[in-house]
Amino acid sequence: MALARMIIVDELPFRFVKHGGFIDFMAEVEPRFEVPSWVTVARDCLRLYIREKESLRKILNFCLVPNHKGETIGRVVKSCLHQWGIDHIFTIIVDNASSNDVAIEYLRRKTKDRVGSLLGFEFLHISCCAHILNLIVQDGLKDLNESIVKVRNVVRWNSTYLMLESALKFVAAFERMEEDDGHFLRYFKDPSSGPPRFLDWENVRLFTKFLGMFYEATLRFSSSLFVTTNVYFHELVSLQDQLNQLCNGRGDPLLKGMAQRMKLKYDKYWGSVDRINPMLFVAVAVDSRYKLKYVRLWFKQWYDKEKTDELGLRVRKV
Question: Are residues 216 and 232 in the same domain?
């Protein structure tokens, strides 16, 4: 099994065990060790994978949900909490599907009388920031979608930002391929969908720079090794500030159009602080480096005095 782990960790081919150098090395290290066939090594790797998967499954509570109805999701989550003996629940993070709103309300009704319910579950629901960012970016992709599809036809990589960032390094290689390979265009079922032309690459270059800030924000929101609640407000401020600059500036009209569409989607989810769980502001207010004064400063940038005072009082009360 140690050999199987080595094959997996070092990403070696199964046939590595039949390489002469490895066989000679093992003969010196331990002559009594019978080097297994590559088929046996493959089976050991699969066995190790199944063992680790089962071990992980015991830690992470994945469950099959019969359908996407809100109450069904709520019942399954409630059952998981019961099985794991989890009584103290502060917040639950879900994406922005309407069924999840129903699921959260179901959980609030069914579990609010538990001894461990914190603050009566008033702040139970938190929308997934990474999912909201994805929705915002997808709206901005509309005008560039044709150019992006053409690049994807060549690269075939699902992560849009990373795909575009990597593809830009090989523009010359793609152009050379088209010149030297007479069968290049046959790779595309519809010639109009690819390969990317000069304007496509220019669009992609422009968009990649713009998309980078959303990609970095998503990484920070999605981190799992440390708490991210305290970075939320700072990312919110930064993104709104940059979108406002692009919307009001005299720069590239394509970027401006993208920014305006993103801003509409941004305002739908984050434009009203009433839609945001106030605990995300409290995390900044209790930070000794910022406190409530910093939160109020940005409220003033976004709202009139009456609204700013109302929201500041709301965060203070929490």
Answer: yes
Q: Kindly state whether residue 311 falls inside one of the protein's structural domains.
A: no
Q: Are residues 154 and 91 in the same domain?
A: no
Residue 53 and residue 138 share a domain: no
- Is residue 231 domain-shared with residue 141, that is, in the same domain? yes
Nearest CA among 122, 136, 200 for reference residue 168: 200
Q: pTM of the entire structure? A: 0.64
- Burial of 302: CB neighbours in 10 Å, binned 0-12, 13-18, 19+: middle
pLDDT along the chain (318 residues), means of 10: 93 94 94 93 94 78 85 90 80 87 88 69 82 82 70 69 86 80 65 71 82 86 79 84 83 80 82 73 85 85 81 81
Rounded to an integer, what distance in angstroms lies between the CA atom of residue 104 and that of residue 94? 9
Amino acid present at 158: N
Can you name the residues that pair with 126 across neighbouring β-strands?
A: 93
